[in-house]
Design a protein that fits this description.
Layout lengths: L3 H4 L16 E4 L5 H10 L4 E2 L12 E4 L4 H5 L6 E4 L18 E3 L4 H19 L2 H9 L19 E5 L3 H12 L3 E6 L9 E4 L4 H6 L3 E4 L13 H6 L4 E5 L8 H9 L3 E6 L19 E3 L9 H17 L14
Parallel strand pairs: 1-2, 1-3, 3-4, 4-5, 6-7, 6-9, 7-8, 9-10, 10-11, 11-12
Helix pairs in contact: 2-10, 4-6
Length: 332
C-alpha cells in the first residue's frame, strides 16, 4: 500500500504534463521543503522523497541539496542534478558526483538583487557605525559623537568585492550607483567598463590593500577555501571591515576574531559560517563588533527556481542540451 506522502506525488488535476522516465528524486531537508515539493509537483514534475522512490535505477534527474554518496550510489542511471540554490559547492566535493552527471545551477536576477541589497546594508552598517548607534539606543544615550559629526561619505569608502559573477556584478552595480568607490577581484580576467577588476592570485594583495570594506561573494572551490586568511587580513588597511555572504569556509573565523581584537580590523558582518547553524558556544555570537545573520542574504526564489529546474527536466526528456550547467573543472 502506498504511503500517504506517496499519494501526494501525483500532479494535481490540470497541471502541465512532463512525460519522463521514472520519478525525480527530491533530496532536501530545508524548512520550506514542502513548498519545493508542492511547486515542483504543480509544475508537472514527478518528484518523490527518498522514502517513496519505487525504482532507484530508473532515476535520471535529481533535485536537491547536499547529496550523500550513499544516495547517489543508488542511482546508476542518473544524468543530471539540479541544485536548489545558486551555489553548487555542495555537489562539487571531489569524487562525489559520478562522471557524466551534469550539475545544474540556478541563475536568478531576483536572487542577485537580494544579495546586492544585503551587501549594501552591510556596507552602510559598517560605514555609518550603526551598531554603535544601536548600542546607544539600548542605553538610552543620545550620542552625536559616534561619527564625530562627520559621516564617512560614499565616495570615500573603497569597497572591494571578491567574486565578479552574477552576485558580485549586481552588488558592484548597486554600490557604484550609490557613489561608492568599487573594485572587484576574480580568479580569471573580466572585462568591465565600470569598475577595475583585479584578477589572479598575483593581484590579490594589491586589491585587498586598496579596500576599506572587503565583501566576499566568491564561489567555494578548492582554490578559494580559506582565502580570507590571517595573512590576507593583515593586508587590509587598519580599520577596515569584512563582509562575508559567500560560504563560511572562505573565512578563517579564528583569524578574523584575532584581527578584530587586535584593532586591525574594525568589525565584520557575517551571513555564512564554517558550521551552520552557528553553534551556540561560538565566540562570534557575542562579539560586539560582529553582526550576524543566519544565511539569509539571498534566499532562493522558489517560483523562479522551479521554472528553471522544470525547464531543464523537459530538455533532458526531449534530448536537448541542458542550460546553466556548472563547470566541474573550475568548481562552479
Amino acid at each position: 500500500m502506498a504511503s500517504a506522502s506517496a499519494q501526494l506525488h501525483q500532479a494535481p488535476p490540470g497541471a502541465p504534463s512532463v512525460a519522463g522516465p521514472g520519478q525525480v528524486l527530491l533530496h532536501c531537508n530545508w524548512l520550506n521543503k514542502q513548498l519545493w515539493f508542492d511547486q515542483l509537483t504543480a509544475a508537472g514534475m514527478p518528484v518523490a522523497w527518498p522514502e517513496d522512490i519505487r525504482d532507484w535505477s530508473s532515476i535520471q534527474y535529481a533535485v536537491g541539496w547536499n547529496f550523500t554518496p550513499e544516495v547517489l550510489a543508488k542511482m546508476p542511471g542518473l544524468r543530471a542534478i539540479a541544485s536548489l540554490g545558486a551555489g553548487v559547492d555542495h555537489a562539487m566535493r571531489p569524487g562525489l558526483i559520478p562522471p557524466g552527471v551534469e550539475i545544474l545551477r540556478i541563475v536568478d536576477p531576483l536572487m542577485a538583487q537580494r544579495m546586492a541589497t544585503w551587501v549594501m546594508w552591510a556596507v552602510v552598517n559598517f560605514q555609518r557605525k550603526m551598531d554603535l548607534y544601536a548600542r546607544a539606543q539600548a542605553e538610552r544615550r543620545w550620542d552625536k559623537t559616534i561619527e564625530n559629526l562627520k559621516p564617512w561619505d560614499n565616495g570615500e569608502v573603497r569597497v572591494g568585492i571578491m567574486g565578479y559573477g552574477v552576485m558580485g556584478q549586481a552588488a558592484a552595480g548597486l554600490l557604484r550607483a550609490a557613489g561608492y568607490d568599487v573594485a572587484a577581484w576574480a580568479r580569471s580576467p573580466h572585462d568591465s567598463a565600470d569598475i577595475k577588476v583585479f584578477s589572479g592570485r598575483e593581484s590579490l594583495r594589491s586589491f585587498v590593500e586598496r579596500t576599506d570594506v572587503l565583501v566576499c561573494l566568491l564561489p567555494l572551490t578548492a582554490e578559494t577555501e580559506g582565502i580570507i586568511s590571517a595573512q590576507l587580513l593583515t593586508w587590509l588597511p587598519r580599520g577596515a571591515g569584512v563582509v562575508n555572504a559567500a560560504r563560511g569556509k572562505h573565512l578563517d573565523e579564528a583569524a578574523l576574531l584575532a584581527a578584530i581584537d587586535s584593532g586591525h580590523v574594525a568589525g565584520a558582518v557575517l551571513d555564512v559560517f564554517a558550521t551552520e547553524p552557528l553553534p551556540a558556544d561560538s565566540p562570534l555570537w557575542a562579539h560586539p563588533k560582529i553582526r550576524i545573520t543566519p544565511h539569509v542574504s539571498s534566499i532562493t526564489d522558489v517560483p523562479n527556481a522551479v521554472a528553471q529546474i522544470t525547464e531543464n527536466y523537459q530538455r533532458l526528456v526531449a534530448g536537448e542540451p541542458l542550460l546553466r550547467v556548472a563547470n566541474k573543472s573550475v568548481g562552479y
